[in-house]
Amino acid sequence: MEVMARKTAASDRLVPIKRSNSSKCPSVGGSDTAAADRKREAPAPVLPEGGVAADVEMDVGKQGKKATTAARPPVGLKRDENGQPKVLQQLETVDADEQYGSQERALCEFLKLHPMLSLRVPHSNPYLSPVSHASAPRRESTSHTTMQLVANLVDKASIPTRTLEIVPKSHDDSMLRPANVAIGERACVLAERCICVWMARWRYGPETNMAFVGAEFLLPSEQKTFVETGKLPATHGKCLVCSRYMHTYIYRAARSDPSFRADERIPLQAYGNSMGHAVGEDFPTHTSVVSDADGYRPEAMLFVDETWSDSAAARSSMGTYLWRPVVKFYAPHYRYVITPEDDRPRLVQVGVGMDEEAERRFVQRFREPALATAKPRSAPRDSSTGQPSSVQT
């Protein structure tokens, strides 16, 4: 019995010899045996004890897991009882300003093509059996398909950006007023075509006293130079509201027109009035603080989606829109009020600041405009002479 057990153990350790296909030893009458050798399948991968199969696409096994993308963005950030967002957020999906598109799909295809940090699967994967190189699946990171995907990604990644000055919300609030000519400030270069004028006329009527030409918008560095030396920029600029309007106008024109050229002069209009021309390369001019105490909410910013990055305009200096947050123009974000000190109209921003309590206190410093009263009806006139009729109704 002991001898039989040793023979059985020895036979279990025998490895079948692979039949050679050499032409020097043709098989006579053994066509069935040769056909069986050709149909012989490759050995299954050997797994270590307690191990699991790797996510590798193999010729002899099932295909690896397929990457999935998010179908929609999340609902929004969670806020506490005071309406403030929490410092640490746990979001399982993409942010509200992100979308999965062609770039993410290309990256997923690239990652599925080969495992990262491995030049060749048969040499680097410990879960594959030591089969011959001829029958082993080739998944090289230097293959033609892989390098072509890398080349396509690099071709789409060259987007120039510019360094812009960061402007807090408190500075913007101080510029939403008429110019103080007594100290040397300049009004908006658009004068009577200023958005502050026409927005008030559309709200309160053409004869309203709430219309005013906004002060020329100065960046914090330019404002500091003006206070210290009294010097203004060499180029007469626009007010903050007109500047935001043009930022939004230019971007949406570039986003809706694939043939948009950043170096072309674009005619601008607002409320039926011509506002001159603008060049896309001049925008954006500055960036704003977001999600901070003295900053704006994310929903108040101009939304720039990733699909626009494939256009020619995004490859110019306008590509800065992709990386620098810019406040969009939205008329309901502005409210006309009266300054108690001099009874002059001005604008305040509502519903855009991160610090809602500070925004509410700032708005309460001003008076609401009085409601417009109806004009008295004129006396009827005679149709033939044009004089007031003696018959009153």
Describe the structure.
- There is one protein chain.
- This protein is of the alpha+beta class.
- Among the domains are: 65-157, no CATH class; 166-331, no CATH class.
- Helix content is 25%, strand content 7%.
- The strands form three sheets. It has a two-stranded parallel sheet with strand order 1-4.
- The longest helix has 17 residues, at 240-256.
Features:
two-stranded parallel ribbon, 10 helices, 393 residues, 7% strand
Describe the structure in brief.
With about 400 residues, the chain is an alpha+beta fold.
Sheet/helix structural class? alpha+beta
Overall outline? globular
Radius of gyration: 36 Å
Quick one: biggest sheet?
A: 2 strands, parallel
Strand order across the biggest sheet?
1-4
Distance between the termini: 133 Å
Number of strands: 6
Mean pLDDT: 74
User: Helix count?
Assistant: 10
Strand content: 5-15%
Fraction of residues in H or I helices: 10-25%
The ordered string of helix (H) and strand (E) elements is HHHHHEHHHHEEEEEH
Stretches with pLDDT under 50, minimum 5 residues: 17-31, 46-61, 120-125, 130-136, 372-377
How does the SSE layout of this entry go?
Blueprint: H1 2-12, H2 31-38, H3 102-113, H4 121-124, H5 144-155, E1 166-167, H6 169-174, H7 195-204, H8 220-229, H9 240-256, E2 265-270, E3 273-279, E4 287-288, E5 334-338, E6 345-349, H10 356-363
Parallel strand pairs: 1-4
Antiparallel strand pairs: 2-3, 5-6
Helix pairs in contact: 3-5
